[in-house]
Amino acid sequence: MSDRKTSRRGFLKKAALTGAGLGALQGAPLAGVTPQAKAAADSGASASTKPHAKVPRKPLGTTGEEIPILVLGCAQKFDPKYDKILHRCFRAGVDYLDTALVYADGMSHKTIAPFIKQIGDRKKLWITSKGPGRQGTVESFESEFEQCLSGLEIDYLDLFFMHALDNTRFLDPEFIKMGERMRKSGKTRFFGFSCHGDKVVDLMNKAVKVGGIDAIMFRYSFARYGDLALNKAIDACKEAGIGLIAMKTQESVPDDLEAVAGFKSKDFTLGQAKLKAVWADERIDSAVSHIDNTKKLKENVDAARSPVQLSMEDFQQLQSIARATAHYSCTGCSRHCEPKVDGEVNIADTMRFLMYHESYGESEKARAFYRALPPAQRAIDGLDFTAASAACPQGIDIAARLNQARKFLG
Ligand code: SF4
């Protein structure tokens, strides 16, 4: 490991444990940021500014494979004739496509398949797909896995994820053996899972214990530096050689609210700074981004290619934003709020769908997911959310946010 990498790691640890992190947890100012941390950030800022020719690559855990640090999230429908986002990403080195059976109303695979043929060599792409295990059984995952292959019209995936796990039982021996069978069949090279909610820490810790998991995709951003349980689980995964891919790096705060914070950096836009903050954590192998227009593509690729690191001032501004907007940032910890409501309303998922709409421009997907919730999980009339809001560690006005979800997504 290079000295520079060591110092960046040291910076993040110190930021998490002494300054930025505890500041975020305790609402304290950033007085704890150490001189060493500042030096580490400053050394990054003063390094060469010549952009990399392509998006840099990093090893994915101990798979022996390198992937680009920027992954193209494929939640949208692509133009099957010629999609400029797909082709421009590929040319920039973003040759890793992250898709799922449920993306784009189930159309994602079909619209990616022509692109794979246009590239002409399957091996030039890294393709990850996911199945939700609709019945919660091995058989349902196996069937969805086959659907991924046939929809994409390919013989193998590079990585198959059990999608959006919310229960550690999916890491019981029957599912781990299923992963082994999938790998042995040659139809996927690697196997893992994604998780959107607060079960991620338990899932990560269990994955380390049981083995058989090559990679995990999970929510991670500048606002999570201070989450000590998550940090320990990330450390354990890294130690175990599990690849880690961050998603939702932009957090879950409405754009207009963040605009009030007035982020200013000489090097980066706010969106770029959020990506850089995740890449600054060397435990993270890559970050997935929903790139649905050429402006965002350029912004993301430029950030990835730039060797310039975030300055201490940039980090401090991000931490200020995290503190100021925490009451809009749902972390998916439904165990705190949902038991406090006399109804079946699905608070965490509703907040996640609202986030897709407000913070990621994924309104179509947000509406589809919201409307697919059973009516009882969307029903909010007559329910009292006072106790749920009081129990929320983020201090979210849950009733107000659920009403917004109904207004925009219902
Ligand atoms: S509303 Fe609050 S308690 Fe409920 S899942 Fe979101 S952050 Fe957790």
Describe what you observe in this structure:
The chain has 410 residues and is of the alpha/beta class. The chain folds into 3 domains: 3-45; 57-324, TIM Barrel; 330-409, no CATH class. Helix content is 49%, strand content 12%. It has helices at residues 3-17, 20-26, 35-45, 84-92, 103-106, 108-119, 138-152, 173-185, 200-210, 228-239, 255-261, 270-279, 294-305, 312-324, 334-337, 347-359, 363-372, 375-378, 386-391, 398-409; strands spanning 57-59, 66-68, 70-73, 96-98, 126-131, 157-162, 188-195, 215-219, 243-247, 286-290. It has an 8-stranded parallel barrel, surrounded by 7 helices. Strands 1-2 form a two-stranded antiparallel ribbon. β1 and β2 form a beta hairpin. α2 (20-26) runs parallel beside α14 (312-324) and α12 packs across α13. It is globular. The chain starts with a helix and ends with a helix. Bound molecules: iron/sulfur cluster. Iron/sulfur cluster is lined by residues 330-334, 336-337, 347-348, 351, 392, 394, 396, 398.
Count of discrete domains? 3
Shape: globular
Question: What's the CATH H-level homologous superfamily of the largest domain?
Answer: NADP-dependent oxidoreductase domain
- Fraction in beta strands: 5-15%
**Unreliable residue stretches:** 1-11, 13-40
Look at the structure and give the CATH class of the largest domain: Alpha Beta
Bound molecules: iron/sulfur cluster
